[in-house]
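quick one, 100 residues, struct below
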Amino acid sequence: MSQLVTVLQGDLSFQADFPSPAFQLFRDPTTLQRVLHDQLAPRFGLGAADIRPHHFFTSLADTQLSCSLSRFATTISLSAERVDIACTNPNPKITQAAKR
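---
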């Protein structure tokens, strides 16, 4: 017996910690931003305005680069210590397609 369930809202999050800080990620921020753009733009519609560097001067661990994939309500954050991906409240079109 199957039953149709409607999901009103969903949140997904993923966190991957590096075994040791990856300081080399931020050695050349321009190259990092270009690589992220080149990989994510064709597949997910990432634009230059969607990439935001965050430089905090309290510690190097606080320096981040974040990307917003608004079509998918997803944010990707990179730091020297980890990668975080958060997807909140999925797009209604995606929800509709999942119902079929």
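DSSP finds two helices and five strands in the chain.
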